[in-house]
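## retry 2 of 3
previous attempt timed out at serialization; input unchanged, resubmitting
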Amino acid sequence: MGRPHDTIDHRLAEWIEAQPVFFVATAPNSPTGHVNCSPKGNRHELVVLSDRSVAYLDQTGSGAETIAHLRENGRIVLMLCAFEGAPRIVRIHGHGRVLTAHADGFGAVAARFGGAEGVGVRSIIVIDATRIADSCGYGVPLMNMSGHRPVLDEWATRKGRQGIERYWEEHNALSIDGLPGMD
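## retry succeeded, writing output
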């Protein structure tokens, strides 16, 4: 059981944005559907929007589970762990929504990241928190960050925007459970 927070204060916001990796978990409504948990590298791709909301840049990936689950039911949790310094785990449970490049509000949220023009950016995921809590993190190992992998950006750049959009059509249109993913 974690220690709940009413809001994301300035100190917590700084800690959240400084973590090099975070994890996103979602699930479909179906009891036989697949729960999804995805690691995300944070190269200034996770921002605190307000004292009760965060957003991250959703890069093109091999599946579209998060998008499909959010479109079905909106349930999401972000988890961040301290891999150096004081032990800490923070979870942000909430209601998520998908902002694609043509959605109302995309530009305003993208500006918080300094723009979202990266060729591999698929959408922005916005989470309105219903529960914010931290816990000890004593069981999380200490690890040294040696850098972010350049492979995803290189792959997206080689494909180009048209190639990425074709990839979405071929690989991101449906979740593994057949739910609608990318339009």
